[in-house]
Structures
1.
Amino acid sequence: MKTLFRYLTVLVFCAISQIAFSQPITSVQSGNWLNPTTWDCSCIPTPGSIVVVEHAVALNTDWAYSSGSITINPNGSLLGAGGLRTIAVYGTGSFVNNGTLQVNKMAIFSGTISNNGSLTVTDSLYLNIALTNGASGTIVSNNFYSGNHLINNGTINAVNFLNNGIFENFDQCHFTDFFNNLTGQNSGIIEFYDFYNNDSFANTAQIYGSYDFTNAGEFHNTGNIRVDHDFANTDSINSDAYFNNMGHFYIANDMINFDTLTGSSIGQYCIGNNSTNAGVFLGDFDFCDLTPPATAPFIDLNSGTISTNVTYCATPCTDGVAEEIKEEQNVILFPNPASDMVFITSANIIEKLEVLDISGKLILQIFPNNKETSLFIDELDNGVYFVKIQTEKSVQVKKLQIL
């Protein structure tokens, strides 16, 4: 009888423990993650806990879990204390952000993740599972690796972005260096400094680059692309780079083709400076070098093969850039870098200016209601900031270096 009683006692204790463990642990006030008074259980969450963040919680420890979840609700925030914290999710762990997250590093190896809030990872974000960034979601990171299926319906800002899975953009992305190593598709707006396609990419909307664009894979364009510096279509290993243009491609400086350029009669390549072909021109696209030689083919340097159906400047060249991207060029921030003051000018009324630090924290906000204004930055620490400029027609984000 005593043995049976002890056995039943153990079962009851285990059941109670399991129920307690599965109950959500919810913040009841702002405070540190490791402070029991922050949570309704008067305890500290452990890996596997179901954690709900409703307040401003400071993550004052690195956190890794293979089960359980973290959910940040719209009014909640989870901010890495000192800006040096890491979150790692694997196993069946779940991470849901509808509020604000700011940590130094984040790695999602398996489990699930969703974002409809502000997700800032200052150093590196490693994503090896599928993520749909919601329409109200913003992702900011210095180094962003996606190795699964990334769908963007919101905004992504990254210095270095490597796609090693499937990448689909339906809204807006701002990259310094973009490297596509598998499959990419753009049906929104992508802005970049350097773009390198190493596999397969399709553009049906707007791509704008302030420096170089290199295609070493297969690229299909039915939208508009503008590159302010050079374009190269070349694969130095397999010599099978393929660029198919059935839209508009404006290259402000030099173009060089070592492999295959093709396109239909509605496709046009516009070259602002030097053009070189050491590969193949196929199809019946229009090729327009704005500084052409005197005789056909109107290419500065040609040692390759050109289809007889290719035309030369059959229609006038335009930059083919959508109004929202043209607006970007009408907003000027100078000097940059700066130490004490910057000036902002726009072709349209500037309604609101916000200065954010690298973590996405709002530092300064003003409402100029004018086409030009100035910002005093002499009291800000040296480093990188983002200036969000809202005009009558668009919202632009520009990087500012303070020295």
2.
Amino acid sequence: MNKKIGVEPTLTPVKDFLNEKGYDVVNINYGVQEGRTDYNQFDAIVINGITQNFLGIQGTVTASVVIDASGLTPVQIENEIKKRT
């Protein structure tokens, strides 16, 4: 498996669940230029619904799959990762 998943820090239950399932899970950093994350390193990025502009600038492009966790359980998020990556 070993897919690398970037998860917004506020989504601790999702992060814990994916870790238990064997994914390589990393908190994503955004906003401040220093310490920003290279989003293309991930197979998928999981964000909360509030963070529609999660990369800090509206026009940023990433090759990674972006999954909006709004209303989804950790199991549903994993299913999306499996389906879309």
3.
Amino acid sequence: MLIFRAEFIPPWVRTYGAVVLAAGVAVNLISSFSLYVQALTIPGMKASFQLSYTEAFVLIASMSLSRVVAGLAAGVLASRYGGRWLVIWSMFGSAVGMGLLGWSPNYWFALASMIAVGITSGSGLTPMMGMLPPWFRVSDRGVVAGIAAAGGSLAIVVTGLVIPPLDRAFGDAAWRYIWYLLAAASVVVGLLCMATIRDATQPPPTPTSPTPRSSHRPRRSGPTNWPMQVYTNPYVWLITAMACCSGFIQGVLTSSFGAYIGVEHEVPVATVGVLFMVIGWLSIASGIIPGALSDRMGRGMAFGGSFLIQACGHALFWLVPDISTFIVASILTGLVMRATYTLCAASAGDYVPVYMAPAAFGLMGMGAGIGSTVSPVIAGPIADATGTLQWAFAMAAVVALTGAALGFYLHMKGRPGQAPDFRPQTRNGTGDSAQS
């Protein structure tokens, strides 16, 4: 038993960092619902409001764009003032936005509600992921980010389980009840965060063991170069470009998966739900495994490999639109569904001082949001003009190859000097909380 503990149980499991991680999983779950649920609810919303593909995809793009702006601003604010209350209030705000979205009487009210959900969910997810790095060592951050990202994967699984029965029971109105359920769940997560999470604080220097100057975290109100130390870092921008590629790919999947397979190729809704659930189950490990590999072989190699797999999956959707191919493509997609998100979260504290991780992750989130906003805006008009969403998956495959090239370029550039590995203060004030 002692061998098992020493070999397989990481030390951080017995620290407060594990509590923060559990809250991170829950916040990822709720925030990801607002993205992934659209893949299977857009057909119902399209039918309820008699929308074209372009109008339907504008709904998705509006949420993505609002998440971009909110995530970027929240990351900067969390780096300076802490993220606890941003996370808490975002959960309650999301509940209000989701409830209003479910009640929407017309397209314009739904559009406004989509924007509200995007703002509230985006302002919570970025600070939550940025709160993780200070509680863990650099060598653990890939795995930890993957575990947090698994909450988003669970959202896909639950979506695949819940939506088909609701669709059978309520038809085109099922999407309303889905948003009502998400609103209730968001309230629960908000209460959980209020009871458990807190911000990391700077460990004070002690006379007996002075801390080197380079390893002090500047006070949140002190650094005059905040947040330019993040915004002028070329490595952060390179990862942001890969996040943009990933967002483009995710935007195609979430906006086009249900309509492409279920409507264009007449696959039953239940089967589409099963395929989406397969992606979800596989994606639970899709962040943990790449994250763990990145801790050992470097972030760039992990980025590049995951993008290559995404390119293969979307090329199959594009080139061979058949049910058997859809199964294979869904499996490939699920294997790396959350990889880029995890690797961005793990990288956020690698190239800047770790207390600036929320700002770095916010910038990466901006890249992902831009990609997810642009892709449906492009795919919708093309689908209306050609009568098929097939070309959306072709674009996703090309963008995935671009992301792979950027990942391998990051690996070739090598890793710069590691930013100081600041560790937060514990309740006993020793400053060795993450691993004591």
